[in-house]
Amino acid sequence: MMRFSTLMKHPADWMTGKNANNEVVITSRIRLARNVRDLPFPGWAKKAERIDSMELIRGKVEALKVMKNGFSHELSELEPLQKQVLVERHLISREQAARGQGSAAVVDRGQRLSLMINEEDHLRMQSIRAGLHLREAHRLLGKVDDALEDELAFAFDADLGYLTACPTNLGTGMRASAMLHLPALVLTEQIGQVLQAVNKIGLAVRGLFGEGTESLGHLFQISNQSTLGESEEAIISRLERVIAQIETHETNARLKMLEDEPNQLSDRIGRAYGTLGYATIFESKEAFSHISLLRMGAAMGYFPEGTMQVCDSMMMDIQPAHLQLHAGAELEPEERDLIRAEILRTRLQSLEAPAINVLTNKNASDEDTTGDLNFENE
């Protein structure tokens, strides 16, 4: 199986954004919760029972064709910093990182598939794809789910569906989500209306690392909340419609900014570029905000093709665990701020300055771009 160091050398398929329209919708994710019949749930199991169930399930997962030459480790075999890196790459949850003996993570070579063993449930399986490709992620994970169901007897009830440790996951056991980059809606102060409308129709809005985390770099995670009484197809279709509408609102907000305040927009992007290129100290939150503006500028033509992928890479590499892995040592926050700034200055040296003069003279569409923020009829 793949070593941790090898996993770190290769960016995930979804991180490169290849062949994906990911200007606004960065990633799509499908997650399935499953438990093995007649085995105690991880939270109730004794240590020996957790180890036994982990070994049983891990062997079946590693044997999958798609996991050939993948990454597989028991959580107790990993250093705390390594576990945090996996969290930052969205390969395991924060809850999984807190687990020790009797829990494991198995990831395919392309980091498209990640299976957490003995997190809250026996299996938390997820698939991540770049852009708005929920169905592609669902198909990929569905094959894994079917293959494992042939090998493991999943706990299932005819009325309640798949049985899970938390009642909120009963039924399909599925969470469908998308990570959206919404800087224009934040800057034009429309984000509150959008998030309120999304919550009103029963969808959840979370930060970069899910429940209980804040939004960094104008990134928001939107997902279904209910899994019982609704089919997987219905959940995905509803989420697709809402995500597509939010994407339209964000695109229109960018066009409106370009039309109404081209100089102010250019100034924001230019200042972000200058600050990233010359600052010597950077906290995470500020760095994310500046990179976010560069990413928006790249999507709007201020920078050459490929700049968005550079921005996505920077957002990953400046996170605390990735920084410390890069430095080869645990660092105090102040030390991380210095190294974060050094990394960003280095990256900006190879990035062309924004083409501000071209875009300040560019005319945007005259149509009304505000739109209706009511998703109830979607």
Automatic annotation (TrEMBL):
The UniProt record lists the keyword Acetylation: no
Known EC number: 2.7.14.1
Bilayer-spanning residue ranges: none
Domain (Phosphagen kinase C-terminal) ranges: 24-253
InterPro entries: Arg_Kinase (IPR023660), ATP-guanido_PTrfase (IPR000749), ATP-guanido_PTrfase_AS (IPR022415), ATP-guanido_PTrfase_cat (IPR022414), Gln_synth/guanido_kin_cat_dom (IPR014746)
PROSITE patterns: PHOSPHAGEN_KINASE, PHOSPHAGEN_KINASE_C
CDD domains per record: bacterial_phosphagen_kinase
GO terms for MF: protein arginine kinase activity
Gene3D superfamilies: Glutamine synthetase/guanido kinase, catalytic domain
Binding site for ATP: 27-31, 90, 124, 175-179, 206-211
Pfam families for the chain: ATP-gua_Ptrans
Sorted UniProt keywords: ATP-binding, Kinase, Nucleotide-binding, Transferase
Taxonomic superkingdom: Bacteria
Family under the similarity heading: Belongs to the ATP:guanido phosphotransferase family.
PANTHER family: ARGININE KINASE 1-RELATED (PTHR11547:SF38), ARGININE OR CREATINE KINASE (PTHR11547)
Protein name according to UniProt: Protein arginine kinase
Species annotation: Rubritalea tangerina
